[in-house]
Amino acid sequence: MVFAHSLEDFAGLPVRDFSDSDHEVPEPGAVAWRLRDWNFAQSWETCFEEFLGAVDTAEVTTLVVGHWSNGETYPPDLLAGAADRFPALRNVFVADMTVEENEVSWIQHGDLTGMFRAFPGLERVTVRGNTMRLEPVRSENLRELRFESGGLPGRVVRAVGAGDLPGLEHLELWLGIEEYGGDATVADLEPILSGERLPALRHLGLMNSEDQDEIAQAVAAAPVVARLESLDLSMGLLSDRGVEALLSGQPLTHLRALDLGNSRMSGDLGARLRAALPETALVGLPRPGDAGRAENGCLGCHEAVADCECYCRSCGESREECSCTVFLSDEWYVRVTE
């Protein structure tokens, strides 16, 4: 997966890069403040200290942690240590880094537990990268939790499943591959799939996995699915075997949306899904007659080249603007997941 551009908005607010040279500082709660080390010109910690001195952080609701350098103090630890300065903080994005700054699978984290415990009022948290640690946490207020990873550690998945998150409505786990540390198993997902500790969950994403068929088989019988409004199994190695399990499992007709983008399913299975779920918004299905993703023209939307509106996995540009076409096949064009 490739992130070619930094966030432009988060939690419904425009992202604003903090700089101590700003002449016009917006209202503290009107933007999502991004703090980063600005091409290694200064440390993230220095940027954070300047931010504390320049902005009324008591009014800040949303923070975006941008690039930091290896060897620095872990930004979520610095944030937790200054929790008393951020009484209104509700939304945090950790590691908004582009491919030019760091590959997703190279982003190294520390222990996120302290941040969650220091800010019990957090409502929306997204973490991008690998090698992170997390212990089970309790939060009455957390509504959305996303881990965007090329290899999500099983210990993080188990911590989410063992947490006490009664208000969580939206959960996304980008599971990744074992080569990059993604060692979570279907057994690790069972507490999440049971739904017992997630009574408010309405969206579940179990994505970007090399074991997507096994995950689909587990989802097909999972109790939590009955209360979901949307389900995302995209970006992984989902084949006809996994889709067959979904079709033969519990009813999915209540779902408003089902995302199976970037799959390996055939066009015939796509047609069966359309027939079985006529009222569900289906994303990323191949066209009837397509044998598999290698023959679909676009890996993301399965449209012909002329109709594709996806983006290049390598450079992040649209097909028209992409300069990689001299050496990349059409399979490299994928739908960008927001």
Explain this structure to me?
There is one protein chain. With 338 residues, the protein is an alpha/beta fold. The chain folds into two domains: 9-299, Leucine-rich repeat, LRR (right-handed beta-alpha superhelix) (Alpha-Beta Horseshoe), CATH 3.80.10; 300-338, no CATH class. Helices cover 20% and strands 17% of the residues. A twelve-stranded mixed beta sheet has the order 1-2-3-4-5-6-7-8-9-10-11-12. Strand 7, helix 4 and strand 8 form a beta-alpha-beta unit. Helix 4 (154-162) packs parallel to helix 5 (186-194), helix 6 runs parallel beside helix 7 and helix 7 runs parallel beside helix 8 (267-276). The model is unreliable at 292-297 and 325-338 (pLDDT under 50).
Summarize the SSE layout with pairings.
Elements: E1 9-10, E2 13-17, E3 32-35, H1 44-54, E4 62-65, H2 75-81, E5 91-94, H3 113-118, E6 124-128, E7 144-148, H4 154-162, E8 170-176, H5 186-194, E9 203-209, H6 212-219, E10 230-232, H7 240-248, E11 257-259, H8 267-276, E12 281-283, E13 311-312, E14 333-334
Parallel strand pairs: 2-3, 3-4, 4-5, 5-6, 6-7, 7-8, 8-9, 9-10, 10-11, 11-12
Antiparallel strand pairs: 1-2, 13-14
Helix pairs in contact: 4-5, 6-7, 7-8
